Amino acid sequence: MSERNDGAQIDPHRPAVYLGFSSVLHRGEGLLDDLGTVTLDSGEPPFHYGPLLIDVLMPYPDVQLVLTTAWVRKLGEQQTVALLPKELGNRVVDTTLRFPPRLGELRDGTARVGSIFRHAATAGMRTWLALGDDLYGVPRDAESHFLRVSTETGLATPGTLEALRAWLATNANPGRSQRPS
Questions:
Q1: For position 2, what pLDDT does the model report?
Q2: CATH of the domain spanning 16-173, picked from 3.30.160, 2.160.10, 3.40.50, 1.10.860
Q3: Measured between alpha carbons, how far is 179 from 33 in angstroms, rounded to an integer?
């Protein structure tokens, strides 16, 4: 998915948010029934915290999204993007699907972090932040690239949106874009 059907592709000069779904955009884990319908084990609707992220990102049109969710392994990239609210789906430029976890990462619980690091390095990302509830094994010198959210309250956790807003204000201000001149 390094280039989407609509021509969108990852730009290492634009800020990126690496986005997990569970506990970020909604509370609960996704369940897929025989008809292909996605529900959550929490009983909540999928993406019920989506409007919070849409609102926070609105002033920053250059911010691109890279999906880190396991949904892409089961549903595929295009179908996963299609499930998102349009305002988020339009920002998706890639996924970490091509950067599967290594066996050791699966054993020690650092699988998502490892995939994110490999994607960011390969894509040459300069400015990025990962959002998730399962961001384990982050090296101390890279903590500024990771915002861990509560499993129970996701983006609605007090302080989480403020931290995301602060990161965006510092790194995604269009007047301070890192685009080459």
A1: 45
A2: 3.40.50
A3: 43
- Scored b (16 or more CB within 10 A) or e, 36-58 reads eebebebeeebbbbbebbbebbe
Q: Which residues neighbour 126 within 8 Å (Cβ) at sequence distance 6 or greater?
A: 12, 13, 178
How far apart are alpha carbons 58 and 14 in whole angstroms? 15
Please identify every stretch of the chain with a pLDDT value under 50, giving residue numbers as ranges.
Answer: 2-5, 175-181
Got the DSSP string for 88-119? HHTTEEEESTTSPPPHHHHHHT-HHHHHHHHH
User: Is the overall model pTM greater than 0.85, yes or no?
Assistant: yes
Residue corresponding to tokens 């996963």: 80
Q: How far is Cα 6 from Cα 124, in angstroms, rounded to an integer?
A: 22
Measure the CA–CA gap between 144 and 167, rounded to whole angstroms. Answer: 9
Question: How far is 110 from 127, CA to CA, in rounded Å?
Answer: 21
Domain residue ranges of the chain, discontinuous segments joined by +:
16-173
Q: What's the pLDDT tens digit per position in 29-61?
A: 999 898 889 999 999 999 999 999 999 999 999
